[in-house]
Design a protein that fits this description.
heterodimer, A: about 300 residues, mainly alpha, B: about 300 residues, ABC transporter involved in vitamin B12 uptake, BtuC, globular
């Protein structure tokens, strides 16, 4: 019984993280998979969501309800996306990569140094966990939170499915494949790109807030470039331009990450743990490079250009 | 006042050297290489390994040369490290970028982002996270202006040398690109790859030369960063945003643009350190980057793309 409970607790933790990652990966898939926008600052957008919700709901902040926090997190991350997108989406494609990288570094810098607002390197603690007054702190709560996260993932998945198969989504793919033709029939590429970029950013903000309320504390080190890289790995390994593949990719890569971390913690002595963590990143880097070379369309995607129909 | 400018030029000369290599890659290989910062870090650490090795064999290598803090060992180490880092850049191209070139620039950007994390973490695994130094010798700064005049101006001999060598390297590269056959082929490929190939220029040879030069310059920049500041495994990551900002400010593919861009970013950083505090120096590069994207997206000296 004890063993089963331990296993269930482990599994539910794993699933909550994977689900949150899946929501973030769906945001990136809309930006990259459907629109061809290269966002290297995923961690920054996730951080904006996490910090917004944490500050609005924590007792030291405003103490607002978690639902309001989630909504505000989603919106604030979208606003950052709007600001970045409005400036660079008109320019050369790799300017977006450089600028999103820059915004993630800058957000990280602010999180680390604006101590009165963000708590500096120690971050924000005592972020309220929703419904804990009724459900306690144990396994029941974790499962309830998992249900919430899965429900949100389901809503996002269905909504995105409708969106990318709507006329709007077809324009996105048309622009990605051939911008000149799309604009010659009167579609303003810039506006469509901006909308797609902002919606992707909204989802990343939501994912960040869900993460914050699950763990209960956040710090700048939760939002390092490695987070961006993990989400990219999920998308690439799963398959871009296909929402189901992105979700599967999130679960597979997070599984790979968790197992490899567990193996290293088991085999490598305590004193070498920091170095082992570095090796784990190398491993996932090799995974992404190998997938790019051997299966550029991902494990679960049959076709890049067609997407789900 | 003068000191802020001087500090800015110091930070800037490291950024410039790194930015020139990055700008060459961006204009000839045609993608934004997110692993370029790691070449700086690897260059610095390879030089550290060689110079400590030499010092371990014979102390003479560490005896300071003239007024500088380091010995001939570091000079030799820097040359060796530049060669090794150039080969590392070429190796990265051979095992990764070359295979992905057909898939388009953005796939290359993703791959370079992954390569950066791998290279950085191998460095962290190998050397540990504690900052290191080339030399334990402390240097006395030479006052060039007394404290009374505009707050005074002080330089260490190392800093003056770094500044002079940066200018020498840029001039050398300028002459190479302008007058040598290979340099001309590189410029031709940057402007019009198809036409260059039709005229009998071997694109693979040009790409190899680009990686080698970019890697070599990155190593020198990394060693300079190590001499004037310190060596950290994360130094490549920290320098990457300033490097990109310098390239875009100067205009992609422009040698003198990258030099000027690097120096200006250095100045922006030192001004922000003096006014806002050292914590926000990375934000300075970002603000310059955003501003130039708004006002003049092709940079100060860039061709219209």
């Amino acid at each position: 019984m004890q063993l089963l409970l331990g296993w269930l607790s482990y599994a539910s933790f794993f699933l909550v993280f994977a689900t949150v990652f899946a929501i973030i990966a769906l945001g990136l898939n809309l930006q990259w998979g459907y629109t061809g926008l290269f966002n290297v600052g995923v961690a920054g957008f996730v951080a904006v969501g996490a910090y917004t919700s944490a500050l609005l709901t924590s007792p030291k902040g405003f103490g607002w309800p978690v639902a309001v926090g989630l909504l505000a997190a989603t919106i604030s991350s979208g606003l950052v996306g709007l600001l970045v997108g409005a400036i660079v989406l008109r320019l050369r494609r790799d300017y977006l990569a450089i600028t999103t990288f820059g915004i993630a570094v800058t957000i990280q810098t602010v999180a680390n140094n604006a101590k009165p607002l963000t708590g500096g390197p120690f971050g924000v603690q005592f972020i309220p966990r929703p419904m804990q007054a009724w459900l306690g702190t144990g396994l029941v709560w974790t499962f309830a939170y998992l249900a919430l996260a899965l429900a949100l993932l389901g809503v996002v998945y269905v909504a995105l499915g409708k969106l990318v198969n709507s006329p709007w989504g077809r324009v996105l793919r048309a622009i990605r494949e051939d911008e000149v033709t799309a604009s010659s029939v009167g579609k303003r590429a810039f506006l469509f790109r901006l909308q797609s970029f902002v919606i992707g950013a909204l989802l990343m903000g939501l994912g960040g807030a869900l993460y914050a309320h699950f763990i209960g504390f956040i710090a700048p080190e939760n939002f390092l470039p490695i987070l961006t890289f993990q989400v990219w790995a999920m998308l690439i390994v799963g398959g871009t331009g296909n929402n189901l593949a992105a979700i599967l990719g999130a679960f597979v890569v997070w599984g790979f990450w968790t197992v490899s971390g567990g193996v290293m913690r088991g085999w490598i002595p305590q004193s070498e743990q920091a170095r082992a963590a570095a090796l784990q990143v190398v491993l996932i880097g090799v995974l992404i490079a190998t997938t790019l070379i051997l299966r550029p369309r991902g494990l679960f995607s049959r076709s890049v250009s067609r997407g789900p129909s | 006042m003068f000191q802020i400018i001087a500090d800015g030029l110091m930070i800037g000369s490291v950024i410039s050297l790194g930015a020139i290599g990055l700008s060459l890659t961006m204009s000839i290989v045609r993608f934004s290489n997110f692993s370029h910062g790691e070449l700086l870090a690897w260059g610095a650490y390879l030089a550290l390994v060689v110079s400590s090795g030499l010092t371990a064999m014979n102390d003479v290598w560490a005896t300071p040369v003239g007024p500088f803090s380091f010995g001939w060992g570091l000079v030799l180490a820097m040359v060796l490290s530049a060669a090794l880092t150039a080969l590392l850049a070429l190796l990265l191209d051979t095992i990764l970028f070359k295979r992905l070139r057909k898939q388009g620039a953005i796939t290359l950007v993703i791959a370079s982002f992954g390569a950066a994390l791998v290279l950085r973490n191998i460095l962290l695994f190998w050397q540990g996270g504690v900052p290191q130094y080339f030399s334990e010798n402390l240097q006395i700064a030479i006052p060039l202006l007394p404290r009374g005049v505009w707050g005074g101006l002080r330089f260490t001999p190392d800093q003056l040398l770094v500044l002079a060598l940066t200018l020498a390297a840029v001039t050398g590269l300028h002459l190479f690109l302008r007058y040598s056959v290979l340099g001309r082929s590189m410029r031709a490929t940057a402007i019009n790859p198809a036409l260059a190939q039709v005229s009998g220029i071997d694109p693979e040879k040009v790409l190899r030369a680009t990686w080698l030069i970019g890697g070599g310059l990155a190593a020198v920049a990394g060693v300079f960063a190590g001499i004037t500041v310190q060596l950290r495994p994360t130094m490549g990551e920290e320098l990457l945003l300033p490097l990109f900002a310098a390239v875009i400010l100067g205009g992609i593919g422009s040698l003198w643009g990258s030099l000027l861009g690097g120096l200006l970013i250095g100045l922006a950083e030192s001004v922000s350190v003096a006014t806002l505090g050292a914590e926000y120096r990375t934000a300075a590069a970002f603000i310059v980057l955003i501003s130039i994207s708004l006002v003049k997206p092709n940079g100060l000296f860039g061709e219209k793309s």
